[in-house]
Amino acid sequence: MRTRHTLVALAVTAAIGLTACGTNEAPAGTASGAGAAKAALVLYNAQHEEVGQAWADAFTAKTGVKVEVRNGSDFELANQIVAEGAASPADVFITENSPAMALVSSKDLFAPVDAATKVQVPAQYSSSKGDWVGVAARSTVFVYNSSQLTDAQLPQSIMDLAKPEWKGRFGISPSGADFQAIVSAVYAVQGDAAAAAWLQGVKDNAKIYRGNGTILKAANAGEVPGGVIYHYYWYGDQADGGAGSSNTKLKFFGGKDAGAFLSVSGGGVLKSSRHPAEAQSFLAYMSGAEGQKLLADGDALEYTVGNGVAANPKLKPLAELDAPPVDLNTLNGPKIVEEMQRVGLL
Amino acid sequence: MAGARLRYPPLRLVPALAVAGLTLLPAAYVLASVLAGGDTARLLWRPRVGELLTNTVLLVLLGTSACVTVGTLAAWVVERTTLRGRPLWTALMVAPLAVPAFVNSFGWYSLSPSFAGLGAAVLVTTLSYYPLVYLPVAAMLRGVDQALEEQSRILGNGTWRTFGRIVLPQLRPAMSGGALLVALHLLAEFGALQALRFDTFTTAIYDQYQSTFNGAAATTLAGVLILLCLVTLGCDLGLTGRARLARVGRGAARPAITHRLGHATPAAFAGLVLLAAAALGVPLGCIAFWLLTSTSTAFPAGELWQTTSTSIILALLGAAVTITLAFPVAWLSIRRPGRLSRLVERSTYLGNSLPGIVVALALITIAVRYLPSLYQSTAMLLTAYAVLFMPRAMVSLRAALRQTPPEFDDVARSLGVRPAAVLLRVTLPLIARGVGAGSALVFLAVITELTSTLLLAPIGTRTLATQFWSGSTSINYGQAAPYALLMILVSAPAAYLLTRRSRMVES
C-alpha cells in the first residue's frame, strides 16, 4: 500500500515538475543567450522547411549562432507576428511569397535592412520601403498533360482560365499562399474590377486541390488536363526521376502577363528582435553570395535573386521569363483573402 | 457523522470548479467572439458556409450509419456465431484503433490521386472508426441477458426476427453511445479528410487559420462547428431510448448462445477478412511499400528516435496532467452526488466534443492577448490535451471510484487520519487501475493528435504525428512512412491493454 502511494505521489510530482520545466524552457533559452554563449535566433520560416533549415544550419556552422526554426505557412506566421506584436519571439521572418511580407511591413514591424544587405539584391526583388529583401523567387506556370492538351489549345494568358471553355479542365490550390500570391498579382496587373470578374470565373471553372504537388500528380495521371502551379514542383519531380511529371509539360505565360508573375520570397528582421545584430547578419547571409549559392546548388530549384549568383542551370533562365513589373510591397494579402472568401474559394 | 460533514468541502469544490471552467473556456471564448464580431454576418451568410454545412452533415450521417452497421454486424458475427477463431477476430477487429485515421487515409490516397470526395471520405472514416461501435456492442453482446432471446425463439420467432425485435433493442444503448463517439470524431476529423479533397468545417477552419491566423473567419466557422457538436450531443439524448433493459434478479450466468452459420460461413468469413484487409492491410501495406520503394525514403535514425521520445514524453505528461485535473471532478461527482457536482462533471465533456483546431485556436488567442508567458509553451500544449481528452480520464476514474466503497474513507477518518491523507493513502491506491486505464486512453489520444499539436507545439517541438503530416503533405511519402509505422508501434501496446481490459470487465 505504502509503496503504491509513494509511486503515485512521485508520478504526480514528476508530472507537475516537468510541466513547470516545459513552461520555462523557451524563455530561459532565449535569455541565456545574453551571457557568454552566443545568441540563439528564432526564425519564423514560411519557406519550405528544408530551405529554411539549410540556411539556418549553414549560418550556425559559419558563425556559431544557433537558429531555432518555427515552421508554418505565409499568412499563418505573418498574422501570428502581427498578433504577437512587440512580444514576438521571432527575430527573422522568411516567406514563400511577398504578400505576407507586405502584411508585416504594413504594420511597421520590420526593422530597416542594413544598407550593405540591400545592395546584394536588385531593387525590384525587395520592398520599396527598404524593410525586407528578396531571398528566392518562383515563377507561375501552367502545367499540362501533353497527351490531353496540344500547344494550340493552351491558354495564352492566365486570364483565359476564367472563360467557359476551361470549366473543370484545370486545377488550383486556393488554400495555399502560392495561389493567393498569384491572385494578388492578377489584382495588381489587371486592376480590381477585371481581377474580381476573373476570380469568380476561376471559382466556377477550377477543380480544387490541396497543394501544388497534388495538382502536378493529378495532371500527370490525366485526372485533370492542366493546373496553375509554381515552376519548381515540376523541375523537382523531373530531377527526382520524373515519376510524377513524365506525362506533363510546362507553359510559361511570359509577355508580362499576370500569369508570368514572379513571386519573390522575402526575408526581414523584426523590430522587436532581441538580437538585431545577429539577425541582420543572418539576413545578409541568406541574401548574399553564400546563401544564394546554397539555394542554387540545393534540391529546392527556386530562382536565386541575389546579385551575381545564377540560378540552377536546369531552370529556364530568369531573364527569359518576361515577368510583369509589380511593386511587391503593395501586394495586399488580407484583401485577397477577403476576395477569395467572397467568391467562396476559401 | 455523515450529516455533519460539508456537502461540498471547499478545498475539493474549488479545484473541480476551476477544472470545469478551464474546459469550458475555449467554447465560451469562440461563441462570445462570434457574437461580438462585427463581421459575423458577412462571414456566415455566404455560399461557402452552405457547402461546408452540406458536406459536414452528409459525412456525419453517412459515416455514422456505416460505422454502426459495420461495427454491429462484425460484433455479432464474432461474438454470437460458430465462426472459428474468436480471439484472433477480436484482435483484428479492434486493431484499427492503433492506426490513426490520417495514416489510414494516407494508405488509400497515396495509391491514386483520384481517391477523393464524399465516397472516399466515408470509406476511410468508417474503416477507422467502426471499432468505436464494435467495442461497446461486442461487450454488450457478451453480457446481455440470454433468457429474452430464448423466450422469443420458443414463441416461434426465427433468428432474424429475434435479432430485430430482441437483440437490436438491447444493443441500442451501446450502438447509440458508439454512434455519438463516431459522430463527434467525424466532426473533428482533419488529417484524414484534408488529403481527400473533401472539405468540412474542420478542414476549412484550418485553411482559414493558415490564411489569417486567428482571424474572424476561422472563429465564425468554429462557432458553427460548436453548434453542430451541441446538436449532435442533443440527438444522442433522444436516441438512447428509455426501454427497460434489465430484469429483476440476475439469474444464473452461462455462456452466450451461438448461432450456427451453416452455409453462410464462407460469406461471414469473407466479410471479416475484407474488413480487416481494408482497415489494416491497406495502410500497413502502403507504409511497407513506401518504405521499400520510395526514393525519398531517408532513415535518419537520430531524428526518428528524438521525435519518438518527444511524442512519448508529451503523451505521458499529457496523461499525467489530464488525470490530475480530472481527479477532483471525478471525486466530487461520485462522492458528493448532487445537482452542482453533476453539472461540473458534465461540463468537462464539452471539450472532447470540440475539434482540436477549435480548442487550439481559442487557447492561442487567449494566450496572445492575456497570457503571453504561456504562449508557445509546453504547458499550453498540455492544457489543450487536458481540455480535449478530459472525458477519457473522467470515465475511467469515475468507474474506479464507484467501485470503491466510501466506507473505507469513513473508517480511515474515524481512526484519526486527516482528509488529505485519506485521499493519498486510501483512495488513490484503490483506484490505481482506473488511473492506469485512463492514462492509457489519454496516451493513445495524444500520440495521434494532430491539429492542436500543429498549432500549439513550442518552437522546435516535433512529434511523430506532425512529422508524418509534414512528409505526407509535401508528397514525400517515403519520408512520411517511418513516422506512420512508429506511431502505430507506439500506440499498439496501449490499444492492446485497453481491449484486454474491456474483456476482463465483462467476464
From TrEMBL, chain A:
Gene3D superfamilies: Periplasmic binding protein-like II (3.40.190.10). The keyword rRNA-binding does not apply. GO terms for cellular component: outer membrane-bounded periplasmic space. GO terms for molecular function: metal ion binding. Residues 1-20 form the signal peptide. One of its GO terms (biological process) is transmembrane transport. Keywords: Ion transport, Iron, Iron transport, Metal-binding, Signal, Transport. It comes from the Bacteria. PROSITE patterns: PROKAR_LIPOPROTEIN, SBP_BACTERIAL_1. Fe cation binds at residues 48, 96, 232-233. Belongs to the bacterial solute-binding protein 1 family. This is Iron ABC transporter substrate-binding protein.
From TrEMBL, chain B:
It is found in: Cell inner membrane; Cell membrane. Its main location: membrane. Keywords: Cell inner membrane, Cell membrane, Membrane, Transmembrane, Transmembrane helix, Transport. Residues 53-234, 308-498 form the ABC transmembrane type-1 domain. The keyword DNA-binding does not apply. It is a multi-pass membrane protein. One of its GO terms (cellular component) is plasma membrane. CDD domains: TM_PBP2. It holds the Pfam family BPD_transp_1. InterPro entries: MetI-like, MetI-like_sf. The chain crosses the membrane at residues 56-76, 88-109, 115-135, 174-196, 216-239, 267-292, 312-334, 354-372, 378-401, 422-447, 480-499. The keyword Cell membrane applies. GO terms for biological process: transmembrane transport. It comes from the Bacteria. Gene3D superfamilies: MetI-like. Belongs to the binding-protein-dependent transport system permease family. This is Iron ABC transporter permease. It comes from Planotetraspora silvatica. The lineage of its organism: Bacteria, Bacillati, Actinomycetota, Actinomycetes, Streptosporangiales.
